[in-house]
Each structure stands twice: as C-alpha cells, then as structure tokens.
Design brief:
Length: 153
C-alpha cells in the first residue's frame, strides 16, 4: 500500500470493505501535522538559544549587565564559564556564572544608539534629496520661464 492510497481511498477499496485505510488516514495526517509543528517550534527555539549564547560569549570587561536574578553590575573579569562583576557604590564584587546573564545593557545601548544614528542619517538623506529635487524643480521653472519670455518678444 503506498502513501497516496492511504490518504485518498478509492471507491473500489471502500466498496470492498477496506475500512482500515479509511480510519488510518486522519491519524496519518495528524501525525504529519504534529511532526511539522514540532520541527518549526524546535527550530525557532534553537535559534533563540543560539542568539542568547552568542550574547553571553560577547560580554567584555567594562560592560554593564543584568543577571537573571535582577542584579546589575559592571564586568571586571571574564573567564571561560564565570565572570566577576562590581555592584553598587561601594564596589562589591560578585562571581557569577555566564549562563546567569539576562541582558548586556551596554550592548543594548550601543545597538539602540546605532539604530537611532541610522534613522537620523536616513532622515537627513531623505531631506537632502527632497531639497535637491526642489532646487532642480525651481531651476527647470526658471529655464521654462526664460524660454517663454524669449518667445514672447
């Protein structure tokens, strides 16, 4: 029995009393849909984990971080699996595991500043293009007006 005959039973199969293929069709379809959903969910989860691991690996000395416990501090020492942070005004030092990093505030601020600068540059470029178009339009109108004046004379 091939896959197509399981999905679409023929009239001859139904007439001969083949109810096993008719009852297994919805089950096969459900299994295929579930496997597809599991694949999509697992893929997005792995992508998110990869991004988080990359973020943790890119922590540098001087970065300001927040841990999953809510502790904020500045990175003093970075080792393979741990790092030391300074917290508070009295500069208490704490040793934490890298997996406990929730956010890198310095990297977030840098990315936000870059995004803002890019938006401002795009806005300035758009404004410059609009001014250039307006100037070109004025020049065309002046040329057109001069031509009209020469024809009138």
């Amino acid at each position: 029995m091939d896959f197509l005959s399981l999905l679409m039973p023929t009239a001859s199969g139904a007439a001969s009393g083949s109810t096993s293929s008719m009852s297994s069709t919805p089950i096969i379809i459900m299994v295929v849909v579930m496997v597809g959903m599991m694949f999509i969910t697992n893929r997005s989860q792995k992508k998110k984990q990869k991004e988080e691991q990359e973020k943790r690996d890119n922590v540098q000395i001087g970065d300001e971080i927040t841990t999953i416990g809510g502790i904020m501090g500045r990175v003093v020492t970075v080792k393979e699996d741990t790092l030391v942070i300074e917290t508070g005004a009295d500069r208490n030092k704490m040793k934490i595991a890298k997996w406990a990093i929730s956010t890198n505030n310095t990297a977030v601020e840098k990315a936000e500043a870059e995004r803002k600068a890019a938006a401002e540059a795009a806005e300035a470029e758009k404004k410059a293009k609009m001014e250039a178009a307006a100037d070109a339009s004025k020049a065309r109108r002046k040329k057109s007006k001069k031509k009209d004046d020469t024809f009138d004379s």
